[in-house]
Amino acid sequence: MSQTPTRIAAAQPALVPVESIKGRGTATAMPHRFEAQQREQYDDGWGSLDQNAAEEQVPVATQIMEEHARAIVTSNQSPDISFDYSINPYRGCEQGCIYCFARPTHSYLNLSPGLDFETRIVAKVNAAERLRETLASPRYEPRSLVLGTATDAYQPIERKLGITRRIIEVLHETSHPFSVVTKSSGIERDLDLIAPMAAQGLVSVYLSITTLDNDLARILEPRAAAPARRLRTIQALAEAGVPVGVSVSPIIPFINEPELERILEAAAAAGASSAFSIPVRLPWEVNPLFQDWLHRHFPDRAERVMARIRDMRGGKDNDARFGTRFTGEGIWAELLQARLRRAVMKLGLRNERRPVQLAVFRKPQKTSTQGSLF
What we know:
By secondary structure, the chain is α/β, with parallel strands linked by helices. The chain has a single domain (64-104, 118-347), classed as pyruvate-formate lyase- activating enzyme. It is built from twelve helices and ten strands. The protein has helices at 48-56, 115-119, 127-136, 158-161, 163-174, 191-199, 214-220, 227-239, 260-270, 286-297, 302-312, 331-347; strands at 63-67, 73-75, 85-87, 90-91, 120-124, 145-147, 178-182, 203-208, 244-247, 274-276. It starts with 47 loop residues before the first helix and ends in a 27-residue tail after the last helix. 39% of the residues are buried.
């Protein structure tokens, strides 16, 4: 379990502006589900509500808080997830994807799953050192590992901090297999480490592409790489010999769902060799955040979108049950899966994960903490 950063302050009272905040996915620092007090805005006759809304429109700077994690490798306990271990170098994600299922994790830090999730980023600065200790343990057995499951390991701050780079250096040194799911072209920086590992069958990468429409991408995932840039990253990885796939996730009915086949075609043309897709999930605070986003950006179809989501989630806004949470259920979910299978077959893509190569793993060399006496 990671240690809670000592520099994190309590969440601020929620403000609900009328308009979106440029460059951010959500327009509200909504309270989280563990807050002891609930607050609501009140018009005192002095124009304070208008003033609060205007203040909220001021660009919100990203704050980075350092954490010295007690552990960095998390074991998977979910029966419907295909990997055994995960590593998240950061908590929160500046890319600001409105649909991100990981937003509620900021609640455990007493922070808002809304603006705080994308503006108050926790950086696990000792991640590489903790990983080395874990891999060196006599009890550790290598298994499938994914880098960046509840955050994007290549979000903008990675360019400065390089935590993901140092993690991959340890994985490279030990020949430990791993996969990455990202929306960032920043992964190209680490091709000097990733390509040689890919040649040994140790690496696979998935680029998440939810839309080819730049205007939609700007409001759906405002600080992620542009769709065309992600396609160029697929091409760069493929040309370097790295197995690369595309994740058309999440699929949002009537928003990006009509683009499913076109995204798959574009990714295949760029060099992707595999693909998968997951319907949108709305756990905990993601649900009100997402619905607020829908009504601000797509008021003409918001109710229709939610009705279709409920059709695929047993009449509820969200279904967290193992076995259906990643696929949905009912006729519309089945139709989406049929469209995916048909497109994958037509394009010659794979829709299953590559086998994990474990035989070449070697324990890391122990680093001495005591200097030489001579």
